[in-house]
Amino acid sequence: MVPSAGEIAPAMATYVLRRLVQMVPLMLGITVVLFAVIQAAPGGPEAALLESDRFIDPAVIEAYRERLGVDQPVPVQYARWLGAAVRGDLGVSFSTTRPVSEMILERLPATLELMGASFLLAAVLAFLLGVFSARHQYSAFDHFGTGLSFVGIAMPVFWFALILQLVLGVWLGWLPVAGTGTIGASSLGDHLLHLVLPATVLSLRYVAGWSRYLRSSMLDTLRSDYVRTARAKGLSERVVVWGHALRNAMIPVVSVMALNLAGLFSGAVITETIFAWPGIGRMFVQAMFARDYPLLMGILLLGSSMVVFFNLVADVVYGVLDPRIRYD
Amino acid sequence: MARLVWRRLKRHKLAVASMAIVCIVSLLCLAAPLVAPYDFDRIDLGSIRQPPSPEHWFGTDDLGRDLFTRILYGGRISILIGLLAALIGTGFGSLVGALAGFYGGRVDGLLMRFTDVVYSIPTLPLLIVLASYTQAGALSMAVAVGVLSWMAIARVVRGEVLKIREMEYVEAARSLGATNARIIARHILPNAAGPIVVGATLAVGNAIILESSLSFLGLGVQPPTPTWGNMLMDAQATMASQPWLSIFPGLAILLVVLSVNFLGDGLQDALDPRAELR
Q1: Dihedral sign, Cα of residue A197, residue A201, residue A202, residue A204
Q2: At B60, phi and psi to the nearest 5?
Q3: Is the dihedral of CA B22, B25, B28, B29 positive or negative?
Q4: What share of chain B is helix, strand, coil (3-state, %, to 5)?
Q5: pTM value surpassing 0.90
Q6: CB B125 to CB A165 under 8 A?
Q7: What residues of chain A, 163 to 192, have a C-beta less than 8 Å from chain B?
Q8: For residue A170, which residues of chain B lie inside 8 Å, CB to CB?
């Protein structure tokens, strides 16, 4: 028996609540691993601070030592770090002596914008490709799409980026190759033009993956009885495919898309570096070169939280779209 | 078993072609000192920055070094890193998955929660941090990549083991007095070989891509030892004036990773006992 909407909502609420509770040990585990990784830095995290040639405000060094309690045993250091982190205090950056959380929040909009644009682009292209491939299975277009998606997955992202920069930017001069706007001539249109290449590069992998996934899910759905019924009623092929079949076919794909949202964060590290996009990914690479451990740790923690959060979103979305899923 | 798989794999034309490509490229790279037309670090100032020509198939770089030769030598390291990392990741992942699936209960809970934790940390950023700690050599690179590519395999193997441990032949082995270690090694893992082999194959391609990404950020194997990744990094600045320096190493990566993935795809079909023979 299919439960009514009234029955689902409380079940869903309980489910989400339970998942939120389960997240606590997972997040704790993540912080332990991240803390261990940063501790494993050659000479320990504070060594980088003391040995560097840069001038660092002695007050920062003192604050850092005090907060970590470098003389304390590692578990105590972890507890102190965690205690501060829970209150949103991720420490002070070595390279700028500013609070890490403030630096991250400052760069977050640019990264979210890039991730969002890539997500939209990938979703639109993947749906068009996937549905069209499924409707014309084994056609030339279908084979082309399959080949393209294999290439998309096997291609080093930065190489694809370099080639796009060369062809579309340098040779043809159609698109700007770096930054977020032309200096002195920035407008919304100009800004969006700067977004085209990075978003294309970042979405490539997902266009490839999602379109194949949607294709196979669509092929299954097109064979089902209710689709045959819809056709028998005399509905046009367009209504059957885009109206009836797609709604069911997209359920598994949408949950994969939610899962992959966090993967876009990983991809942003390379993409932002290549296109000089002033987001968190680029800041991460700069922090790595500066051995700015508090900043690295903060960004890794943000990335991991995104993964955990989008995992939950994926499961909830799956439940909302597919009433056959029971939460008990 | 092996013959059956081979017979089924042969039907998958693309997979066979891919396997041939992987073998040929690997052999050429392995035999680089014999087949390469030049020395990989021979500087020839008389022929710098030449586009592809009959003398230099893939052109030359700023120091007049032959690019084709360097790609062959670079392939040795890149492919070696891919294989080693896949071996480490698959080995560790299979072990974790087998232990979790076989023992169940608290062992399972502990190992799988640990897997969840590592899975939740974005791989590339974490790898970047780890790679920045080590003196970038081929071995440390392979270890760093391998250490972060076991989670998917662990989950798959665990699932397989959960199924297999209920089989009668496992029961039979146990009643004959086989130890747990023997049952895992002789009866369970061989029967989970399908997904393990597929996972390992795909891991090779993934590791080659990761190595090149690290090299791109300057964290990979350092010059003068060429790898496809660090050749690409060197070529970035001259992309516009000498595009061949970027295009060929990238194509080499694309060709090998693409072939490895096609092969993995074919193996997946060939190793799946439920798949219909076409």
Answers
A1: positive
A2: -130, 165
A3: negative
A4: 75, 0, 25
A5: no
A6: no
A7: 163, 165-166, 170
A8: 239-240
The token pair at B145 is 């990549």
| pLDDT, tens digit, 9 for 90 and up, residues A263-290 | 888 889 999 998 989 999 999 999 988 8
DSSP A171: I
Establish if B110 touches chain A: CB-CB under 8 angstroms.
Answer: no
Cβ atoms B85, B138 nearer than 8 A: no
Q: Give the pair of three-digit tokens for residue A11.
A: 């079940």
A37 vs B126, B236, B240: nearest CB: B126
Looking at this predicted complex, what is its ipTM?
0.84
Beta strands, E only, B48-144: none
Q: Could you tell me which residues are beta bridge partners of residue B60? A: B66
Alpha-carbon torsion, ordered B199, B205, B208, B212, to 10 deg: -120
Taking the CA of residue B25 and the nearest CA in chain A, the distance in Å comes to 16
| CB proximity A271 to B under 8 Å | no
Determine the distance in angstroms separating the CA of B113 from the nearest CA of chain A, rounded to an integer: 7
Instruction: Please write the tens of the pLDDT for every residue from A171-189.
Output: 887 888 777 777 777 778 8
Of B121, B133, B239, the CB nearest to A33: B121
User: At CB < 8 A and 24+ separation, what contacts does B55-63 make?
Assistant: B58/B244, B58/B248, B59/B242, B59/B244, B59/B245, B59/B248, B61/B234, B61/B235, B61/B242, B61/B245, B62/B238
